[in-house]
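Table S7 (text form). Paired inputs.
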Amino acid sequence: MSESVLKLKNVTIFQRETAVLSDVSLEILKGDFVYLIGKTGSGKSSFLKTLYGDLALVQGEGEIVNFKLNGLQEKEIPFLRRKLGVVFQDFKLLNDRTVNNNLTFVLKATGWKEKDKIENRIKEVLTKVGMESKGTIYPYQLSGGEQQRVAIARALLNDPELILADEPTGNLDPQTSLEVMALLKEINANGNTILMATHDYALLLKYPSKTLKCENHKIFEVVQRKS
């Protein structure tokens, strides 16, 4: 039986005092690739923020990578985030330091201390995303697609149990979007579980997978028609 990496039961997601999603019950299993779709403002980002501890879960029951989301303590959040990889639409790379130093910063912040192990891990993840020759370059010298590859490498650093990707192709042209998507599917095929929020329906058609939809304050699974 597959292991659960995310399980929610009767959850309500709040943005300040406003309930943006209600009565959410779902499960994501180890190795899944799941899309989260819905219009802007439908609650996708609030949902993801709740999963990585940016918004508190105050109603319902939730467990993610063996952390209980209801009652999650402030001091637990850094430990939760070590087991998650988060990829953002706008990359969130530090432009005043090289690619290698961006990744070093994350590893040191999550408890890595030995220089040779840090260097080896950075080399491994950059090779995985096809950016092994770009370590000494600054993010602003890279294209959008290259920056997103570095952001994906950053998400892989601590070998996360679940990768949360929030519109990872949102700032990219269609061809680059397909390249980044192919990379995410390859990472998934190697065993990483991925939950990806997107509004790019072309990607769903090209790479069909389990799909959850945010609509009318609910999340439900979309049954894809066989063509």
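Next pair, protein 2 of 2.
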Amino acid sequence: MKRACSRIAYALGEFFLLTFFALLPFIAVYLDAIVIGNSLNEFSVTEISQETLLLLTAIIFWYGTWQHPDSRGFFALAGGFFTCALIRESDSFLDAIWHGFWVWPATILSLSTVFYVVIYCQKSVIKPASEFIGTKPYLFIVIGLVTLLFLSRTLGSGNLLWNEILEEAYTQKFKSILQEGLELFGYVIIAYGSVLLFFKRYNP
């Protein structure tokens, strides 16, 4: 009975925590659009929050490559993926060098990561990846990725949806707020799944 009550209490606590996470994009966008009055540029609360969450996620997976040699290949590929995403998300800063410069460090990192895994730890990819599939951290990370890569690009698309619905009332600012808010929610869920993975693997 005590164990059952603890599980229920944990579930309730997680529900309220996820409710708070769902409010974070609204809070960030509200601060940017209403309180600060900026246009969600690279120095906005929303953008900085996205990059911080991506950095946290990447650090967790890169830490896994050092902490767990038996799963090094899997963690390295995931860490490389999220680091490339961070580079892409920071493209506004890298554009100071020249426009589109982010492609070069992202390409070099992705090729270097794949090369490293193939040469040194290809045997530690398939089994850890298969064990990861279906776990609670996996579900959160996948839901976050779907939100980030697809929902934000469809529901947040001005050309596909909102331009036709709002017509003359449509503005680029509306599209940016909706799309960036959905992206932030995706990053929040991905980071939460990564933190769950961290505690599951490193504090059994």
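The first helix runs from residue 2 to 36.
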